[in-house]
Structures are given as structure tokens and as C-alpha cells.
Amino acid sequence: MANVKVYNKEGAEVGTMDLNDSVFGVEANTHLMHLAVVAQLANKRQGTQSAKTRSEVSGGGRKPWRQKGTGHARQGSTRSPQWKGGGVVFAPKPRDYSVKMNKKEKAGAIKSALSTRVSENKIFVMEDLKFDEIKTKKVQAMLDGLKISKALIVTGEKDDVLSISARNIPQTRTVVSNAINVYDILKYDNLVISKDAVAKIEEVYA
């Protein structure tokens, strides 16, 4: 089992904790992590873009001038793509960009991302992430004590005090353990996670 240090909110080491190797010690599967990131970004796309083709633009029913004898190039409609106000060639239409992943693939990708952070020594297990008041300075002081800046903070339960305190800190995001995803784990250089969040993640993915 991987053994990591446990810190308090002042950044001081207060103990150690064993992590489940089936969650935090697997061999990283870069292919699965790539699929998970692509799927998440694709699923965020609205897919509502739309433009009109020449058949959908109003007007243009009459031939603008006769076929021969005018000196102009021959034209059949003023709504052809080369005309101002004409239709769009291969116009984009609403579509579904969503990408599906199997449950086992999603779980494997998350375990790979978590294991990557452990192997890089970029996971910081916190004894407690509870704050008594909404204060950005306190969260910033905690990150300064750990000597990190770009961090994903994971809690076991929803904590409005922490999330509001941390939301103004650049390159920092808070998330509940049941909402972690591969994109966020890889995007933020460091993983700051409470002991109860580790237990809940192991309970789900072990």
C-alpha cells in the first residue's frame, strides 16, 4: 500500500495514511484517461450551432438575368453561396457531440489519474478541511503552508464555507468526492483531499 503524509491546515505533518493500491496504486492507463477527457469536453458542447443552406434562405426564386448575352457570368439564383445574402455551403446544423464511456472505463480512468498524482507525490491528504468562517485568506494560507498553488481540493461532503472561500483563488477548484473527474485531476497540478474523501473514494472504486 502507498503510504502518504497527512497534513493539518497549517501545512504541518501530523501523521501518515495508507492508501488502497486498487484505487491509488494502479498502473496508469493513458488511453483511458485520454478517452475520459475527450468525452467530458465533448459532452459539454451544446451542439446548437446552425446556419441556412441555399435551399433554406428566403428569396432567390427568379433567375437574376438571362443565361446569355449580358456579359455577366451565368447565374441561376441570388441565394447561391457566392452571393451576398446567399446560403452557406455545408452549413452547420444542430447535432449531438456526446461521447459514451462504459462504467468500468470511467472508473479505470479515474483510478489511473489518482494513481498518477500519488506516483508524482502531488497528493496532499488533509486531516480536516473544515473552516469556521468564510475567509479566502485562510484557504490561501493553507495552500501556502503546503507550498502549492494550482490545486484541486476534494471534500467528503458539500462544504459551502470552503467552496465560497476558495472560489476567488486563481487556479483552485473545490469538488465533492462523488463528483471528481479525470479532467479536473489532470488539469490541476496538486490534489488536496480530506481523509473522509479518501475513504469515500476507496469505498466506491476499490
Secondary structure layout plus pairing:
Blueprint: E1 2-7, E2 13-19, H1 21-24, H2 30-43, H3 103-119, E3 123-126, H4 136-146, E4 151-155, H5 160-166, E5 172-176, H6 182-187, E6 190-194, H7 195-205
Parallel strand pairs: 1-3, 3-6, 4-5, 4-6
Antiparallel strand pairs: 1-2
Helix pairs in contact: 2-3, 4-5
Detailed description of the structure:
By secondary structure, this protein is an alpha/beta fold. It folds into two domains: 2-45 and 98-205, Ribosomal protein L4/L1 (Ribosomal Protein L4, Chain: A), CATH 3.40.1370; 47-96, no CATH class. Helices cover 34% and strands 16% of the residues. The protein has helices spanning 21-24, 30-43, 103-119, 136-146, 160-166, 182-187, 195-205, and strands at 2-7, 13-19, 123-126, 151-155, 172-176, 190-194. Strands 2-1-3-6-4-5 form a six-stranded mixed β-sheet, with helices on both faces.
List keywords for this structure.
2 domains; 206 residues; six-stranded mixed β-sheet; 7 helices; Ribosomal Protein L4, Chain: A; alpha/beta
Quick recap of the structure?
With 206 residues, the protein is an alpha/beta fold. The chain contains 7 helices and 6 strands.
As for the number of domains, it is: 2
Radius of gyration: 27 Å
Looking at this structure, what is the CATH superfamily of the largest domain? Ribosomal protein L4/L1
Average predicted confidence as pLDDT: 91
CATH fold name of the largest domain, please?
Answer: Ribosomal Protein L4, Chain: A
What shape does the CA trace take? elongated
CATH architecture of the largest domain: 3-Layer(aba) Sandwich
Strands in their spatial order, largest beta sheet: 2-1-3-6-4-5
Low-confidence sequence ranges: none
Q: Supply the number of helical segments.
A: 7
Helical fraction equals 25-40%
